[in-house]
């Protein structure tokens, strides 16, 4: 004759099974229980505050669109360029959209490419910049913690002067204290337009190539489910031409009327 387990033991076993299942769900879906914490670089046009203090910008908008497409609520905060790496490193932020550097590679996972920007050097009016060798002996402004072009960075004959932002660099080029400025065309042109500057005040840009903005996710807070959902959301938005539309809209409303070159039309992921 089979003996029955006491009811108390049966209840205890059920509690253990339910507890184990609950813990498994929390481990499998940790990010779904909370909003994602996004940080956006506080550099026009990628992230900036309106007169009323409300944040906006290309990457601010795109970050929010990606989180929403992936089904996540989110909080988004503007931070200085270098500070975004620190926040991801310590797990106080989940993701950022930006160019990479060595410190960011250590702190975060490269999840998905967003779109490419041309990397240019903009010199003073009258400068003839056609190659890296034309910058030998010159002093070029470089954003602190910025990694824009490997060949440029490795060329020791080019002087590099650290700057805090594009506004500082452009002011120094116009005043003759710097010979040029390296950075993304979208960032440099937008800030130049906001300062009331036009293409006529600079050399023709030397294009060094393209570099992608990537979605970087903190290694401290990452989980496979969240990363896959974000990667899928990026692919879906790219197919809908959302990223290209945001960039082109911004360019039309800001720097294109001042004679600066249009942004890249390449919206395909890197191979």
Automatic annotation (TrEMBL):
InterPro entries, per the entry: Solute-binding_3/MltF_N
Start and end residues of each Solute-binding protein family 3/N-terminal domain: 35-246
Protein name, entry field: Amino acid ABC transporter substrate-binding protein, PAAT family
